[in-house]
Amino acid sequence: MKKSKKALSLLCALMMLSASLPLSVAAATKEAQVNQPTQHAIAQAKPAAAKKAAVPLTKANVEKFTKEFFANPDIKKMVAGAVVTVVKGNEVLLEEGYGYADKEKKKPVDSEETLFYIGSVSKVFTATAVLQLVEQGKIDLNADITKYLGDVKIKNDTGSPVTVKDLLTHTSGVEHADTGFTIDAELDSKPYYSMKDELLKNTFRIVNQPGKVYSYDNFASQLQGYIVEQVTGQKFEDYAEKHIFDVLDMENTSYVLEEDDVDQLASSYDWKGTKLKPAVFKPTVLPEGSMTSTGEDMANYMLAVLNGGSFEGERFLNKDSLSKMLTPQVSIHPNVPNMTYGFEFYTHHLYNGHNFVVKGGNIPGFASQVTFLPDKKVGVFISDNHGSNIRDIYMSAFMDHFYPDERPAPTYLQPTQQQLTKFEGRYKNLRMGFDVTEIKANSDGSLTVKDGIGSTVYRQVDPLLFVSEDGLPLAFKEVDGRVKYIYTLLGFVTWSEKLEASVSYTDVAADHPYRKYIDGLSPLVAIGEEGSNVLQPTKEMTRAEFVHVLLELFDLGYRHYDKPAFNDVEGHKYVDAINEAVRIKVIDAKTVKDGKFEPDRIIERQEAAAWMYNFLKEMPAMPKPPVKLAGTTDEWAKEGVQYLATHGYYGPEVIKNQDGSIDFLSKKGLKRQEAAAILYKLVYPNHSEGK
């Protein structure tokens, strides 16, 4: 299935849009060269005639290119305001604002004054602080992190210590890395929420052997910031201001937005164009993502990186530390790097085979990215206040214009279908449990991959590396001689792990009408009792049972709560799931009368649909014409039932009428087998109908 590069960059934008926080240069000297693989195997399979001559990257050319880019009517629809900064060597080629910092007031973006939340781009600066202290001998990269955590305890089920290096490379092995912070405009912004207070209540658990598995890790960056506090005796934000921002003359940059600077902050908008309330963070300082900055300040940072770690005669990192930040430290395959000390690699195909490092960041309404092209001594920063992730589309166009693909077409291997069977199976995203990739071997020696993108064919260029027609990498990693992990475009900033075999339920026969749904879900989440081989497929689910299954499938993890969300759930075995469902607004607490949730009441299908819709409606989806509903559905549930019926989230139990209408059986209790069908369709929207 061939996809245009523009379509792929738009897809990347949609992927990033649903991430929070989920919620990059040559070591710029001859003494510290970056030796990133050139990735010849990941060439785009274009005919030679399609290749363009590079346009020289000059001040005039990049100004013209970027002005025309933002004048494009399609781009204008995606962006409220943006700032773009481009540097090359010692020179700032572009530092410009586009569109509005506030649409309603028609206030333009000012590259020197307008503040943007840069989200997880903050992680690069947090890693910088750690490496500064490593240079001073105050932190040991190979030390067990417990040496620096004081009273904070992290549950570790592996028997192997997590090191500081593991935190820097996002290989800590933590489960549910996003449970240590909250971003919510409804939080009280007056108190100062300390990192230590939040970490003392942490629910983190190390489940994979540290140093072995890559998965994007907000937990790791938060701990890095806390370790800086522990080692220096300073608040993290104060340390960063003195030792990084002051050194680089980033006078408008901080981890805490001060009251005096609020007027400089760009207003933000969701993907629908609705103006958002200002974000409130808990803890107040997020080393993983609470920084604000300007285009001008980020220019100073990029100049310092491009010039060996110095800015106007002051050094913020030595050459060895900078080299480690700009050199791949974790790679699923030599030609598919994933992580440095702080920077990462994703959307490899957009960079036309040129060496690059990148760090992106999102918080609600804001999307940012800093990118370096090491061999070219070029840095690019882009941020927008519409959360549109225009960055991927811009960088794709930027690369095609100034640094087009010069690689030869790939040379494909000729494996047999039998040789490829070891790659077959389903793989679960280590960060988002409901993101599953299915791989099948074909008779022509190719692999078909089905995932949230659709169906894509890949061909082998190396024993553990395949590429699509569009140059997308599909890389595998073996453990003890068996394929265990993969990396794909949709994996983005994490690997996916091969799923175990389905549970063999004694009361689900081979010809059971719900067998394929149950088999597809059972490796991901227990629909019935955990560890049991008896499902009772026709048993109706309780409200607590369904919300537990939903939260387990979403794989978001659970936070600490001082008190339960409702009066009648304290001590219930699913109280954590209920609390979390209220926090993420799957359950609207305002609709619960007298503070009584009734966790053991049978859940109606319409209520299950409403809860799922509360989660899914915030995610961009391809528009579909709504189906007509038949039967009886309560008014409060119609939107959710309509959404599930339209997108096909149901099993064989629904009634499809000759006029095209669907009776969702909204008022009936939801059976376990029906829940399996609904959730299967969510997890496997583009997958085969067979088992």
UniProtKB/TrEMBL annotation:
Domain SLH: 561-626
One Pfam family matching this protein: Beta-lactamase
Molecular function via GO: hydrolase activity
Endpoints of the signal sequence: 1-27
Name of the featured protein: Serine hydrolase
Keywords: Hydrolase, Signal
